[in-house]
Amino acid sequence: MERDDKIIEMYNSGVSASIISEKLNIGRRTVYRVLEKHNISLHKNVEKKCLVCGKKCVKNICGTCNTNLRRFRVKQKSVEYLGGKCNRCNWSGHISGFDFHHLDPNEKDFNPSGLNLANKSWEIAKKELDKCELLCALCHREEHSDYEKLYELSKTYKGKEFKEG
């Protein structure tokens, strides 16, 4: 019982279970068992603020920001993997301005965005990225735009006009 009292005293004074086990030369799991036996909460939920968004959370970064960070890291690595600049205009800037364009849409297994890549292995991600070219957002919009056709059509089409006023 003396050991239990020592463990409880140390834990209540803020010493972690790891340090207690080290100082008393016992296993950390033993410390947890003693605390559980005496109905002492193992996790003192100290409320913290997320380092990114400032919301209250238990860890240093809330779950939402942790997910966003993971997505950012995988997109950053993917942009670097594909050369770090637009294949059409050579623009290089903030990674939010880059898109992954599939060269052959029929070979597309999934859209390689940060959202979809974050939970895949790097090998799977690279296989999909190898089917793509890195484009800036403007070049990617132009790639998928029908405006060139519509511009030519608008010169001769006599349909309803835009009314001013």
Account of the protein in words:
The chain is mainly α. The protein contains eight helices and four strands. Among the domains are: 36 residues, Arc Repressor Mutant, subunit A; 79 residues, no CATH class. Strands 1-2 form a two-stranded antiparallel sheet.
Secondary structure elements and pairings:
Blueprint: H1 2-12, H2 17-24, H3 28-37, E1 48-49, E2 56-57, H4 63-81, E3 98-102, H5 114-117, H6 122-129, E4 132-136, H7 137-144, H8 147-156
Antiparallel strand pairs: 1-2, 3-4
Helix pairs in contact: 2-3
Summarize the model shown.
The chain has 165 residues and is mainly alpha-helical. It has helices at residues 2-12, 17-24, 28-37, 63-81, 114-117, 122-129, 137-144, 147-156, and strands spanning 48-49, 56-57, 98-102, 132-136. The protein contains eight helices and four strands; from the N terminus they run αααββαβααβαα.
Main β-sheet description: 2 strands, antiparallel
Q: What level of helicity do the residues show?
A: 40-55%
Radius of gyration: 28 Å
Q: What overall form do the CA principal axes indicate?
A: elongated
What is the helix/strand order? HHHEEHEHHEHH
Number of strands: 4
Uncertain residue ranges = none
Distance between the termini: 89 Å
Total number of helical segments?
8
Name the average pLDDT: 88
Q: Strand arrangement, largest sheet?
A: 1-2
Strand content: 5-15%
Task: List descriptors.
165 residues, mainly alpha, Arc Repressor Mutant, subunit A, two-stranded antiparallel ribbon, two-stranded antiparallel sheet, 8 helices, elongated
